[in-house]
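Inputs:
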Amino acid sequence: MFKDKPEETGGLGSVYRHRVAVPRPGKRSERLLVIFTFCLVVFYMVGGFERVIPKIPESVRLERHMNTGQTLHPYKAVKSSIDWGKVKPRYPSKRPPIPLPTASEGIALPQIQHSFGRVSREDQKKRDERRRAVRNLTIKSWSAYRKYSWKKDALLPLSAAGKDQFSGWAATLVDSLDTLWIMGLREEFDEAVAAVAEIDFANSSSPLINIFETNIRYLGGLLAAYDLSKRDVLLQKATELGDLIHAGFDTPTRMPVDNINLLSVKSSEGQLIEPQVVSASPGTLSLELTRLSQLTGNPKYYSAIARVNSLFSVSQNKTLLPGLFPMYISLWGPKPNVISGTTFTLGGGADSMYEYFPKLSQLLNGAEPTLISLAHNFLTSASANLFFRPMIPDSSSNDILISGTANILPNLDDKKNSFDLSPETEHLTCFIGGTYALAGRLFSTRRYLETGAKLTRGCVYMYKSFPTGLMPERLTMLPCPSTDSSLSAGCKWNQTLWEATQKQPGLPKGFVSVTDRRYILRPEAIESVFYMWRITGEPEWQEAAWDMFVAVAEGAFAKETGGGASVKDVTVDPSKEEIRRDDEMESFWIAETLKYFYLVFSPPDLISLDKYVLNTEAHPFLRPVP
Ligand SMILES: *[C@@H]1O[C@H](CO)[C@@H](O)[C@H](O)[C@H]1NC(C)=O
Ligand SMILES: *[C@@H]1O[C@H](CO)[C@@H](O)[C@H](O)[C@H]1NC(C)=O
Ligand SMILES: *[C@@H]1O[C@H](CO)[C@@H](O)[C@H](O)[C@H]1NC(C)=O
Ligand SMILES: *[C@@H]1O[C@H](CO)[C@@H](O)[C@H](O)[C@H]1NC(C)=O
């Protein structure tokens, strides 16, 4: 019986065997030996060894595997052909830089993650199997990218080719770096780092650089890969690119542009600010620029973005929906205006701006009180104004919330604005459950955590409702008169009402219309499920994640290449009609979607939320500790 034990208990097995082999024991010692042996067996069966000699944590094991020894792909770091940090700005800042708060200026943050106990062998086995399935699918997608679109921005998963859409700096490659690291793919990671070493951030496939995408995908990807692997070339490349993004602030008011004009940077002409931009564009630069300042010790990146946050801070209570910012703002002219827009949403256009308020306070260890109030005010206002309870047939077992879109019509006559909440939502809003859950822990506010759970369940519900198991990109539901769950009697399913409101035939009950039927490999729902799992430790979230993974793996797999492909219509029943796909694999498929699935089924010390802050592209930044 002992023969097969040693393998499972590792080093302990050989120690034990040695003791058994005592030569010619006497009667007494033989009996003792039997008793001793028996005790060891019992100890083993109740898992005693694992308690006395804890297993090496996954994160430590992985660090050894990924970071020790020589790289498997030697490279020579090539500097970008222009050093953007040396180009003279047209509008140098006249004010002294805003200093970067140090970790010791912060406060002790509460524990974010649930205190996970031991996992039963059965659960462990199930979890490992699921994790392997996610890793397998990721390897297939990465191999397809490598084979058909190496160093291109994106893979075309049906036609087995590549395309450039974000300056041609290999967006998918940079975006995938930390996923490869986290999944322990050493060979693939080293090869990708060698490719990064040659990127020229002065040679773009298009003359305009989108500041938002470049920041979250490229800069975020480089910083996280550096934080995990400590390969110097990654920080060097991050700094080269960070200097280009910093040049996007070369405007008279030092507010950033949405699109950086490369030629104007080269010739020190200054940047032309757009009359109107979505608030997420300037609102989603802060985590990356702050981390770059923390890592390089150069405060200029943080200083640039701290000015934008000051503008948000002084304007937050003056908007048409105080606490929230309109989707469209204007940073143009001498007086930037972030208050007069009339549309409010947590979806596309605004989403990650909100996400970054609590996350930046976490990255700064709570050292910046204005960020904490930006976070509290938006969380309170969104709860009160943007969420609705949908009318669904099984509402008693589904206490869920959906995030809608508010429109304010200023009424100058009686000075009371009219408010309209449209029950239209989109997949992009599904990140918000995770943000509430994180804020709930970060600010020790139970209410936020509860709201986060309801919002996340709402997204899980929308996935489950469609025959593919996937949520469409954009849809409308039938709202209940009240969001208060204690009034469930007031939200009884009304078939007549639903039939009268329904705009398209054949939709699941509760859904009024689906205005965009695609699933484009988006991560936001599994992102929130990941936060809920790591924060509460409740098994419901792992189960929800698995159902979603099975649906995603089935719906999005492109047999042409092995890559992931957008699904054209998630409302079509795959048992009756073949799933149709689009020739598109966005870089966030490997960077975010597959990474979040993998992390849900990994030991929770891997990318612990107590150590890392994840940017809006799922890139983990190490938080400096006081
Ligand atoms: C993962 O892939 C390997 C090799 O292709 C295969 O043997 C294994 O069964 C797969 N595991 C899962 C869980 O899909
Ligand atoms: C810029 O990149 C393109 C595409 O990778 C390449 O063909 C070209 O030679 C590069 N130009 C310079 C000046 O390096
Ligand atoms: C904004 O409004 C909130 C809620 O009414 C309030 O708590 C906060 O102090 C206000 N902030 C400012 C800067 O006026
Ligand atoms: C259901 O909705 C219809 C149409 O709006 C309405 O006439 C009816 O009174 C509702 N039934 C109940 C039980 O609320």
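The chain has one domain: 55-622. Flag for discussion at group meeting.
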